[in-house]
Amino acid sequence: MTGRTVIRGGLVITASDEIHADVLIEDGRIAALAASGTPAAEAFTAERTIDATGKYVIPGGVDAHTHMELPFGGTFASDTFETGTRAAAWGGTTTIVDFAVQSVGHSLREGLDTWHAKAEGNCAIDYGFHMIVSDVNQETLKEMDLLVEEGVTSFKQFMAYPGVFYSDDGQILRAMQRSAENGGLIMMHAENGIAIDVLVEQALARGETDPRYHGEVRKALLEAEATHRAIKLAQVAGAPLYVVHVSAMEAVAELARARDEGLPVFGETCPQYLFLSTDNLAEPDFEGSKYVCSTPLRPKEHQAKLWQGLRTNDLQVVSTDHCPFCFVGQKELGRGDFSKIPNGLPGVENRMDLLHQAVVDGHISRRRWIEIACATPARMFGMYPKKGTITPGADADVVIYDPHAEQVVSAETHHMNVDYSAYEGKRLTGRVETVLSRGVPVITEREYTGHAGHGVYTPRSTCQYLN
Fold first, then answer.
1. How far, CA to CA in Å, does 33 sit from each of 41, 346, 434?
2. pTM above 0.70?
3. Helix, strand, coil percentages in the chain from 3-state DSSP, rounded to 5
4. Could you write out the three-class secondary structure of 149-205?
5. What CA–CA distance (Å, rounded) separates 293 from 300?
6. Residue partners of 113: CB distance under 8 A and separation at least 6
7. pLDDT per residue over 174-212, tens digit each?
8. Residues with Cβ < 8 Å from 42, sequence gap 6 or more?
């Protein structure tokens, strides 16, 4: 373990405070903070000093929705736990929560063991797991209790993808009832997959095969309908609900209504829905396939409602749903049939910078940036204040962030293992300079100094908004 480090002269930003303070790190944790220039701060002594003058000192990002090495549509997400967590570190994210997958006919335990084997010894930053539940039965329900006890406290279900991950309303209700008892949190992919499959079949029969039809068949109304249904099922079960990757303004309205009624309902959106649109899906020469993800990109007018939802706290978290597939050889599987394009976008490296750009653009405040990207995901998934903030006792997951540096996003310079960027050519103000994970420098002044295996598995407590 490294000895002591002091970070001097930066503006420390958390979800609740901004203060010019020096930060003392000892044995991988935050030991103390003191206002810069005061005798208390001057008294900090350390083997290593980091000068953060003119920079922000922020908690490492917590990306609560990633899919490294996910099998999908006959291929695999192109980032491994090694490449994906390294890219995350480059982007100022120091914790990911990935999804272990239960296959139909198999146990939750088998799925979880498989994902532990993929990740262990390979991660540059700390990681946890959610569990995808694809096969609800009596054994699965019992296993959910055991998983909660050992720190896998959230379970994802799908109202989409019939024949793969899909659960019907009865299965969803049973899992929600179980989570109401064991303290787990159900995460929902809310789209009416049965109806969408009909629209897919009809579009293909009409010869509508281009990527842009992916967005047209996965209608906003079917996202809103599924969101509404998930909320009502959760209400019947007396269970909390977390709706993932919300993209449609009509779905935000359903969440807002439920929250106004005092229900424990939460919503997440992703950078692609805040910065991209159906214009990208319509790009010619099959370029639109690069932007195929589910829920799909929406027309531009949805963006303002998503930003509003983040400001009013009807949406609480921005995660990436990072699930990259290369254009060459993977996205191309869907040439001539948009339904065969692997669903997913790369983004784990871009999230913190894109959200800082949102601060620059006036969409959100600096503290709200840290709240939606660090503190709330840590609280939502039972890791706070170990993760998501800078306070004595917290893990020393700290980013030195240069708010004035300018960069142009490009596949040429990113570190994700994918052959394109969803934000190619986008100019951003703000850039990660140095990243500490538990006090160890993973990125040092724009050089990678981390290594696979530094990141450790992080068991989680239950959702801290429900205690």
1. 7, 36, 19
2. yes
3. 35, 25, 40
4. HCCCCEEEEECCCCCCCECCHHHHHHHHHHHHHHCCEEEEECCCHHHHHHHHHHHHH
5. 16
6. none
7. 999 999 999 999 999 999 999 999 999 999 999 999 999
8. none
